[in-house]
Amino acid sequence: MEAFYDGNPEYEWRRLEIHRIEYETTRRYLDIYLPKKSRILDVGGGPGRYSIYLASQGHNVTLFDLSSKNILLAKAKAEEQGVHLEGFIHGNALELDHHTKGRFDAILCMGPSYHLTDESQRHIVIDKCVNVLKPGGILFVSFISAFAPIIDMMKGYPHMILDEKDRLLDYLKDGTNIVSEENPGFTDAWFENPANIEGIMKKYPLEKLVITAIEGMLSPNEGKINSLPEDCFNAFIELSMKLSTNPMTWGSCEHMLYIGRISKS
């Protein structure tokens, strides 16, 4: 995983420019649920897209990432935009508690939860995030949907459906994605069935605030929506956010977001 991102640190920065719906919707949920001037830890925050945005909004943000090249790019982007981040930590999320000091008002775990293919490791990371939250702190956890490979094929290479149909359906039974010569492309990852997310997160001392489909029903038509005038684009984002907490829409998106609050006691 570290080698994948070290080899192309611009990848994630550009990815969120291309996937505007994902970025804009996530940004809006952060704005809704984060208290003002929060102390935030962005775990697996890559080159800092969300960290830099949140710092620009007055939050005290520390970026934590496995890739040293992502950290370097984040520092450069923050300086370029005149934004101050409280800290940059190069480390493994499985050892989160060894690298951080104090507790945080909010934690973003929007990467490790789908880059770790081992269930026990995903549990360790989320548990460590919970443990460094202040009482009443907010946890954001993102997931790649097990329906995402189907949507990706529809958008990018529908001509391959005859060869790939069975493999795509298999992700709904086992979300493990291992890169190989036969399965090139995205790095090793775990794709979660959206129906499982609430049960997974009930294992932790969190009050569920929302589970939402980030791209909602917009995902299959992402290209067309991205090219719209800004007022039309924003209208679609608003429409999607009104619908995307309905589980009936969850099979149409590529990313899911869980937001929960730890007990105040």
Automatic annotation (TrEMBL):
Keywords from the named record: Methyltransferase, S-adenosyl-L-methionine, Transferase
A single MF term (Gene Ontology): methyltransferase activity
GO process annotations (BP): methylation
Signal peptide as annotated in the record: none
Keyword Transferase: yes
Keyword Membrane: no
Annotated Methyltransferase domain residues: 40-137
Protein name in UniProt: Methyltransferase domain-containing protein
Biological source species: Methanosarcina acetivorans
